[in-house]
Specification:
The structure is a single chain. This protein is of the alpha/beta class. It has a single domain (7-238, 254-301), classed as Rossmann fold (3-Layer(aba) Sandwich). 42% of the residues lie in helices and 12% in strands. The protein has eleven helices and eight strands. The protein has helices at residues 7-30, 47-54, 70-75, 80-87, 121-134, 153-165, 193-198, 212-227, 260-267, 271-279, 281-304; strands at 62-66, 111-115, 141-146, 169-175, 178-179, 182-183, 204-207, 234-239. Helix 4 (80-87) crosses helix 11 (281-304). The radius of gyration is 19 Å and the shape is globular.
Length: 320
């Protein structure tokens, strides 16, 4: 059952989820023009996971995410102008136009970055959480990853270490049922993803249907327990679904790895529409109008921003 939510929380969640949905729809619309200089992995359909989780965090809490990171970046408070400029390869981007969609970062918002390599941000997040525990700082670290990452050794090593050291971290698995085109049912043996975490003594909870409010409630409880020193790591399996292809915009049903019926079933319980209905038409429309102005301004900012100078090729390099 969906937890009760007051109007202020509903407005906050709807503002975040609608904004992310529309940003990604604009990216999908513009991508074929080649103005966006980076491959994009869209979160269309999966927005509720990032929104429900990040709305339960403090500003100084830390988030790591995957290459499908637009939603987490924006939900944690990442700068929209700098994100779109980064996709355009512009000097005003969050990584000065050098990184693109798969490597977003906004340290001021507590968003520590994304990676194009599956599961690599999981041990990075565990390392950050270890540093927070060592320094006795009241900071919760969250790491997002897909169901495919659970099959990587880094996942198991990280959970084992986090459990041993009782680290202040929440592992959030965005289970969209497929690792690219490979269905989870063909890849997973045993009792399921939560059982993997429970085998290390980590409390684990599965949230069905991408329920934004249930995710917000569960993360709020987990974070409160961590801050109070009553627990170490937590694991959340968030069931969700990707509406478009694995990489880039557009439909991929022609590949036959999933069905129209399955896609339609998930779209029928779309969280953007559900939250709008719960909030009420006048307030939802007001939020949509504000978001549309902000999104239009962000794309205009990216269009008008300069490309990096050739000197950028020689800056921010590491050498021994």
């Amino acid at each position: 059952m969906t937890p009760h939510a007051n109007s202020a929380l509903l407005a906050k969640l709807y503002r975040s989820i609608y904004r992310i949905r529309r940003v990604e729809e604009e990216i999908e619309r513009i991508y074929p023009t080649d103005k966006i200089k980076s491959p994009v992995h869209l979160s269309l359909g999966q927005e509720s996971v990032a929104v429900g989780v990040c709305a339960a965090l403090h500003k100084d809490d830390i988030v790591f995410a995957t290459y499908r990171g637009h939603a987490a970046y924006l939900a944690k408070g990442g700068d929209l102008n700098r994100m779109i400029a980064e996709l355009y390869g512009k000097a005003t981007g969050c990584a000065r136009g050098k990184a693109g969609s798969m490597h977003l970062i906004d340290r001021a918002a507590g968003f520590m970055g994304t990676s194009a390599i599956v599961a690599t941000t999981i041990p990075q997040a565990v390392g950050y959480a270890f540093a927070m525990r060592y320094r006795k700082q009241d900071t919760v670290t969250v790491v997002f990853f897909g169901d495919g990452a659970v099959e990587e050794g880094a996942f198991h090593e990280s959970l084992n270490f986090a459990a041993l050291k009782q680290l202040p971290i929440i592992f959030v698995c965005e289970n969209n049922l497929y690792a690219i085109h490979a269905p989870l049912r063909d890849r997973l043996a045993g009792a399921g993803l939560c059982a993997r975490a429970q085998s290390y003594g980590i409390p684990a909870k599965r949230i069905e249907d991408g329920d934004t409010l249930a995710l917000h409630s569960e993360v709020s409880l987990a974070a409160a327990e961590i801050r109070a020193g009553r627990s170490g790591p937590h694991f959340i399996e968030a069931m969700t679904y990707r509406y478009v292809r694995h990489v880039g915009p557009g439909d991929d049903l022609f590949l036959k790895y999933r069905s129209q019926e399955e896609l339609d079933a998930w779209k029928a319980k779309d969280e953007v529409k559900r939250l709008a209905a719960m909030l009420g038409a006048p307030e939802a429309q007001r939020i949509r109008d504000e978001a549309e102005k902000e999104i239009a301004a962000a794309f205009d900012f990216a269009e008008k921003s300069p490309f990096p100078s050739p000197r950028e090729l020689e800056e921010n390099l590491f050498h021994a």
